[in-house]
């Protein structure tokens, strides 16, 4: 795997652009299914032989003021289970908040559109009033028997970022397996460039991603650093949140939150070199606190209390990675 390069040149990136465009332009589900199935065929060698030890492929690109990261993987669940789990906004709020940088998530219908707010902040505990609320409008193609797609789009975010696009799509491979794609992209300007440079010179210094850019003298892989590493760590954390959510659906409802937290942390520890940030007890402790605050936010929204406006805060708080 190498950041900015693809097994079939342009295939994965083109699929991301087409799928996102189709979500807004009414692309027939059959076209999205065909594109994703073609991507699966093209990536089969990488899915079978990679650093993850499971069928997973990551790529990233940072070019001309736009950052993009994509994860493709095979999940051993029936298509109907995956489709059912990913359709509902409330499920996404349970899912995305497993990510270290997402402090809370709320959902509401505004002007006829389904809007979800991801409160983006630092990796350690942070109350939602210190995080930046990114408001996504969600859209989904009518989920059919052979293709699921859902998109999240936000006009702006912290530090002058804009045009956020998240794409989640899946096709069945067998009775008990799906091929899933999670894509994340945004545009940025000078403020984010400066913030990322500061992050990479301090907190993010020495951290690596998943793309292999070479080998050292001992023949061991050398992983991408810099912005590609930031992007790759971010999208893999989201993908593992989807996996953890699916893996804990069978638990009693009262136990699912704790099970999800534990499972997500354990999954990230498989890739400790890239994803380790803290010990498990610290993660569990601050996520429990953030969960209570999220539920309070959602209750206020349900009662008609408007969400607050974005704050200004430290420049490094919104550089996930």
UniProtKB/TrEMBL annotation:
<feature type="signal peptide">
    <location>
        <begin position="1"/>
        <end position="25"/>
    </location>
</feature>
<keyword id="KW-0732">Signal</keyword>
<feature type="region of interest" description="Disordered">
    <location>
        <begin position="297"/>
        <end position="321"/>
    </location>
</feature>
<protein>
    <submittedName>
        <fullName>Uncharacterized protein</fullName>
    </submittedName>
</protein>
